[in-house]
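Exercise 7 asks you to align residues with tokens for two separate proteins.
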Amino acid sequence: MTDVLTPTPLGFTSGLLDTLSSTRTQLDVFVSHHKSQLDAIVATGGADRARMEASVTAYMDRLESLESEDGAIRKANVAKRQDLERKEAEIAELETRVRTEGGEHIEKLKEEEEAARLEAEKATAARQASEASKSSSLDLLTKSIVSYREGLSLDFERAAGNRLRLVFTNVNPASPSSAYAFTINVNDQEEYEVEEIEPAIDVSRLVEKVNEDNDFGAFVRGVRKAFKATC
């Protein structure tokens, strides 16, 4: 049996209308389904956008903070650089002063050193002259003593420091071999000094006299007489 297609007022058959109706229903379902998905995507996109905006805001705040910190660091660096430049200028000034004043001070020290050296040389020369004079004086004394050593029972010997030690015997009749001795020295003032006299007697007046008249022979006889007076 063959289906009969009934025409519609618009000229469409009923079968075509059924197909269109079914297709529309499917389209509505499709749209409804995908509309829900689109709405979900939009909602999710809004949340993501909010998070993104929050992140951007946070990044901007951090950037502003870093820029502020960078400005502070730049200011600190400028201050440090200025301080460094000031210190370098002070060091340069100090080096200049050291070169100028230090050079003058060194020259002064050199002059003082040269003056001290000359004084030392003068002192050395004077000491050597004094030693030579002492040695010459003792040589003269020795020659003077030799001339009458036998008559005075006198012996002599060189002592340390260019001194001359005189030893008398035959002073005490009770003990002719007993020694009576003293050491004579010529000081830096070219004066006679008596040291280490044995036995101890006072010969200060005899020393004063020999320094006045330079009669050493009389001085030796006077000391022997003073020793003899103790016997």
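Second protein for Exercise 7:
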Amino acid sequence: AKDLKGFMLRHDARKATAPPRSKAEKSTKIKIDEPPFKRTTPKNVPYTRSGDKGTSMLLTGERRRKDDPNFEALGSVDEVCCVVGVVYAHLDDDEDYGPLQDQLLDVMSRLFDVGSHVAKPRFVADDGKEFVANGVGDGISPELTEQLEGWINAMTDEMPELTSFILPTGAKAASHLHVARTVCRRTERRMIELVDDKTCDPNALQYVNRLSDYFFTAARWVNYCEGVPEIQYQRKLHSTQRQRIVRSLQKEKKDDD
């Protein structure tokens, strides 16, 4: 009891001698839209707090709900780009993949271009106006698709011919390339609506479509370079069947002369 009484006396004494608090200091209510924490760095940070209510801004300056078709497509483009980054990280530094690493870096940059285009929708009517591939999101060059086809042709020409369905597995990078292929297909499905609305360049859709074919071929190429066999699809003829149909993929080693 004496300790409690002493505490109360000291508390009252401090309260009596403390300077009066301002009205702002007395207010302890925290507003949801005004967080009490401030940025402690002058450098750019990834948050703006402007999207906390479920909207975001396109490159046109227009704000839309985050489940808007443009943002759905944009998110899918971003996702496939990130999967390609995982593929790149899983490539063996001691293995010779030819130009594959450089190609993957280029693909990630071009996906940034596609994302910029999707984030900058503009209506192009059937009056002669066209999308322009100017590097700032107004369109996508058809030459990018032709480049992918050239890469596909080069890899395909080196590998054994594909004669059966194969399972999406093998080396780690190859398996992730198959994931990239499926995410790319979803991205294509998200972009079709935008092309139909004439707010997205058909060349962007064509590039994404061909990109999924490139990922499939690149997955085979990685297995080929690493000597990992392909496991072929097998019909279930008998419930006791366990044998896998494996096709050897072995890249020829060139002698150092």
